[in-house]
Amino acid sequence: MSCEETGLLLDAALDGELDARSAMGVEKHLSGCTVCRSRYEARRNLAGTIHSYAEYFEAPQHLHARVQGKLRKEDQSDAKERPAISPIAKRWIAVAAGVVLFALVTTLVVNLLKRSSGSELLAQEVVAGHIRSLMTDHLVDVASSDRHTVKPWFNGKLDFAPTVRDLALQGFPLAGGRLDYLGGRPVAALVYRRNQHSINLFQWPSPAQDASARAASARGYNLLQWKQGGMTYWAISDLNASELAEFERDLRN
After folding, report:
1. Under CATH, which number does the domain 116-252 receive?
2. How confident is the model at residue 116, as a pLDDT?
3. Which residues of 22-40 are buried (b: 16+ CB within 10 A; e: fewer)?
4. What is the pLDDT of residue 100?
């Protein structure tokens, strides 16, 4: 089996769609051809990446039955009118389909990687904003433990109204708030205390659905990120992870 013939069958081999004879031919060729073997491994790794990150949705059974019934009717009605496709044409159709599929898969993977790297970049900005507020002694623009003082202070300074809650009874008293800049936009930064520790709570509007908290750590700080009520929240502190999680639960509840 030549390299050209093997290349046309790689996708089918990965999906387990080859008959026994063709599968043995591909396997024999790959064992002696490093070029085709590297192509095969690259496609297998790509398939693994898609399987790990892509979301899969199964079509309802009734839709599956309708599509299959429609295809059978069209095949029966067009069988006499449709000219026979030569083996060479079938081969080129398979190549074209493989190219299109590869382009779609590549686009999907690139978008997933961009989404992941964008989240990591935002986390780095959150850490930098927290450290900057501590180093420059600019933790708050409005210093108050009264949420009815802190919340109105943001009026006219942001294009949204931040959520400001009093958590003093839960052991996280409000210290104040300030303006900050993350992800290319102005955001609200609320500051809470836990004994001698400061918690920066960044927030801004988000159209995404509610999402449970995701924990991370960077440069000695613990971070939590979640979405609720049309807002994105990032909490960061040198508190231990369990106390920061307690803060997040108290804030959400």
Report:
1. 3.30.200.100
2. 45
3. beebbeebbeebeebeebb
4. 61
